[in-house]
């Protein structure tokens, strides 16, 4: 049917423009106040969404993950997660090119070719053993490379912690994914299933860390925000305070014993 | 006979030199010593992971490593933040004890996620007045991730005082959590200490 396909490609082509436009609008106004790690002007809404996500985890995600982890043997779960990961590689190649990072694009390109063939459609990961490690990237990182600021912190329904820049990246990634654009629609549905399975596998594997953050913290919203921001800035090669200098990453408790 | 007394004198001299050395924290921390410390930490952590013990055994082993190789009083004080300034000496000691148990339970539990894995020291470099020792954690079926230790001798001994797992900073994360716990108890440090003994 040509009509839905045409519609889909129109949406796919223009969604990034909308997202980037929205980003420019949002990203212009949020930067952290002094003493704050990240700007959080929507904290009230974010906290409500965080509680909603926590409720979803309690009621659905965690029980499903524990069932999946208990019933399905580890090698099978690993294989499914590998296939899901493999299908994100074309998108990562595209982001590598957009970042003008030849090494990243080539690494992920070769990974995709090798794991799709010798790795049996991505079930196995021989590329890592051949010296082509997993090098994750996404459109959020591309925006960072292009000079967009992080923007405000966001708690996104079902997705969890993000920032204005990273959320725009997530939206754009979904729209410009080459696998989505060049394969029939039912592939996308299958891929969603694989991604969901990978998510459950991660939730099962890191249950101790995730559950302790969500359910044992005095302020699970603040902890989730802090963990996400620190880890994301680390991935993007930034310091903890968000600047590109490494220095203030390493505050000295011997010089500032009371953290003032 | 002569030999014997020489030896004794040697021992005596050695012993006094040793006590002098431990009284003076002036021996500068070197790159080699920082690496050596973290090699010991990593060696011990790896053997805990490989031992496959029960969770409670792993927690107490982790507590031993934490107490022996890290500067617990400095970590505890920094984590408590400004509240540490107005605390009495007894309160600070009680907090440090409770904090040690809390950290050991909280992080010792997560050793299960490291099953089948190991840490490897990568490189050491001087930063400010301390050393940064980078290690990589290898877990089965996942990409290696970064675990970095910061080592200082400012306590008088070579000890680590902070650690980062994929950029997540222990001091910063625990300072926020302890701060939130204290806020919830209306700033009552004694209540925090009592609850911290059970938390983690």
UniProtKB/TrEMBL annotation, chain A:
Region of interest (Disordered), ranges: 238-260
Record-linked Pfam families: MlaA
Keyword Signal: yes
InterPro entries: MlaA (IPR007428)
Compositional bias annotation for Acidic residues: 245-260
Signal peptide: 1-30
A cellular component annotation (GO) from this entry: membrane
GO BP terms, alphabetized: intermembrane phospholipid transfer
Key words, A-Z: Signal
Entry similarity comment: Belongs to the MlaA family.
Protein name listed in UniProt: VacJ family lipoprotein
TrEMBL record, chain B:
Entry keyword set: Signal
Domain of life according to the entry: Bacteria
Pfam families: MlaC (PF05494)
Signal peptide (residue range): 1-28
Annotated protein name in UniProt: ABC transporter
Organism: Donghicola eburneus
